[in-house]
Fold:
Amino acid sequence: MIRNRWLLLLFGVIVGGVFIWAGALKIADPLGFAQSIKNYQVVPPGLAFIIAIVLPWVEVLSGAFLIIGVFKRSSALLISLLLLGFIGLVALALARGIDTSCGCFGSLSRRADLSLILTDAVLLVFALSVFFARTPRQNH
Structure:
C-alpha cells in the first residue's frame, strides 16, 4: 500500500484529470460517442445512446470529486470499476476481432488495442492506490 500522500495526490490528479478530459470530450459529441459504443456490438442501439448521455457525466463528476477530495474513496472505487469495465470491453472486442476506435476521448480516440488495455491498467493501479490508501482518520 502506498502511503506517500504527495504520490497519492499525484495519482488522483492524473486519474481525475484523464476522466474529466475524456468525459468532457464525450459530452461535446454524444452521437459520436453513442456510435463508438455501438461499434463494440455489446449493447442495443437505444441503450448505447443512454450510456452516451449518462457515462460522460459520471466520468467528469467522479474525476472532479477525486481531484478535489470530495467522496475521494467512493470516486476512486467508481473509477476503478469503470476502468475494469473498459479493460474488459476492449479485451472482448479484441477477442472477437472487432477493429474499432476506443471511444475514450471522443474524436481524439485511438484504436482499441493491447496498449489501451495497458494504459487503463496503469490508471487502474493509480485509482486503486487512492482507494486503498489509509487516511489519517483510519489510522486511529
Observations:
- The chain has one domain: 5-134.
- The chain has five helices and no strands.
- Residues 12 and 67 are 6 Å apart (CA to CA).
